[in-house]
Amino acid sequence: xxxRLINRRWVILALALVTTARAALADxxxxxxxxxxxxxxxxxxxxxxxxxxxxxxxxxxxxxxLRYNRIxxxxxxxxxxxxxxxxxxxxxxxxxxxxxxxxxxxxxxxxGADWSDASSGMALSTNSxxxxxxxxxxxxQFIDRTRVFLAENTLVVIFGTASxxxxxxxxxxxxxxxxxxxxxxxxxLRGEPVEIAVPDGGRVSATSRDTVxxxxxxxxxVAVFDGTARVKNAGRSVDVPTNFGTRFVGAAPPQKxxxxxxxxxxxxxxxxxxxxxxxNATFSASWAAVDKARAYRVELARDEVFTDLVARQEVGAExxxxxxxxxxxxxxxxxxxxxxxxxxLGVAAAPISVLVSEAAFEGGAGGVGGDEIVASSYAxxxxxxxxxxxxxVDDEPFVSGAKEIDLLALRPKxxxxxxxxxARSLLVRYLPATASVRAEPAGADGLVVRVVLxxxxxxxxxxxxxxxxxxxxxxxxxxxxVSLKAEPRSPMSFVARxxxxxxxxxxxxxxxxxxxxGSNVPASREAERRAPPAEEPIPVIGLxxxxxxxxxxxxxxxxxxxxxxxxxxxxxxxxxxxxxxDAQGRVQVSGALGxxxxxxxxxxxxxxxxxxxxxxxxxxxxxxxxxxxxxxxEVGAAARLGIAVGEGSGPLEGATGLALGGADGMxxxxxxxxFDVDDGEAAYPYLPSFVGGATLEPLPWLxxxxxxxxxxxxxxxxxxxxxxxxxxxxxxxxxxxxxxxxVAPLDSPLGGVTTTLSLGVRx
Length: 763
Fold this sequence. Notes:
By secondary structure, this protein is mainly beta. It is built from five helices and 55 strands. It starts with a helix and ends with a strand.
């Protein structure tokens, strides 16, 4: 027994010497700890007092073993052998917890003291109180890196960590929530549960990184979003799994765990990367309704675990959208939870990550809208990009750490931002910078040229644009470059004086790189360059030389305005009934002066009655009394007088008519109604008659047409009706030719096939 004791004392002494040497060298905190620490392997039979005496020289420091270890130190009782303890390298006194981060306003109170404003990094001793006021939050980190996050309007009392275990077999709570809401995160060192106490004896032991405990009056609600939690009250306990919750009121036992409200589904998401002017970053998101939700909690944070909160807001069930404004550069995370009618906080929607970057424009106007950057080509784009963001110009490789882009030097068409898990391309549209140029005579042969820049607001004109005047002269290939002098009172106005005004053909203002900004043609050359264009002729409706037939019963197709033309035509008619063919020639002239048109025609004998002299002529006049636009619609009337010129011809005869027509691009349309004024048949058909049709001009020299004619006549004392379909075309410009074919499916003399050939000239 004595030998064993001596051996153990030698081991303790050796360890003490090693520990003392380590402590002497351990001035710097061990990474991950607030102080320098060492590891101690527990030997068989060792007690807390043995280790304290060996490590610190005094058994009274045994409580230091409890700082980072959840063990039970009972005087004289050996510890479990083989366990590795993490203990301070030397005797120190450090606070139980630290207020790691907070958002005003947060108050703290030391034991026995009054409330005072908190400060970041301040120490919190055992039995200290922390109170977050409206719109405030706090992050408390304990020695063993257990963390507790306080929502607004929350009051907690700090108890401690392993150092307060003493001889108790039940780990003490790190804090007691008096009112409000806290989030407990599992201890980082060994993974032991986080202990949260509530008044009246309730207790929450959470092996979780995200368990929310809410205290309202006497009601305590627990929601577990990661890991598990055991909730005890009134001598009973329940185990709550992930995405379940429970509650208890006063001294009542906790309820059976129930599922938490499901995660909302995002309906609209913001761009993964937001580029905006400084202080103007904005993005929004919306989500679908969750059944039985009475409210939603929206959280915006700078970290994925939502401990560094920027905003936390609860909105009614009718509000299902969130908008963030005026955010500084950085990465942000957005999530939303439903709160049901029983006040259970629901599962969070999958977080949305948004990277906010800034874009400022120096030396010129600019802005960002949608997926487009709009800027002056003379501006410099200044970028505020969060760490880890890369940038590419057009199709060049990505680079990191870019701070600015000189738009004048690079002239990019596209800028692409890229960060882990996100990319966004923005097109670049340039605001035009232009110059108005005015030239005034000066002296016998000089010019004063005055230039005013437009669209160059905010641009350093002297450095970025450096405008100059290029003088182009007749017969000289190279331009003469003349400096522009800035007007004293107007930074956008310039002046230059040049000689030899008679030789100047053009004045061009350009920037230093030769990019034209504006131009002017001096007055003497302007008159030549801007000679008034010839007036476009009024469209011709119908044909220049309409088809005709030897049959006197078929009427011409005529427009309200007669075309200017002279033409000759030959018509050949082949009846269906076996009668002999017939033919006849025609010479026709027409022209218009304003709304009045004059025309005349001479017709030869036909072949069917060679023994009779049937030459005839007629004279006519037309009057157009309606014209809409450029002949979109014309309405006119006509009168014709027939003259028998051959021996044996009949008496004079005449006709009147009404025409309606119009032109629309390549198409014209025309309808005629004609009426006889006597019953002769020497030179003109028996009427009334109707002719209607349309033309198509696919090329300036080609016009196709089709008409339908209907008429009435008296044949051998018997009233007869006739009709026919005519198709054909005219081709040519100054000299033109035409061909047409008419089919009339009737008996002779009203039926048959008639072919017309014409040749004419037109102005």
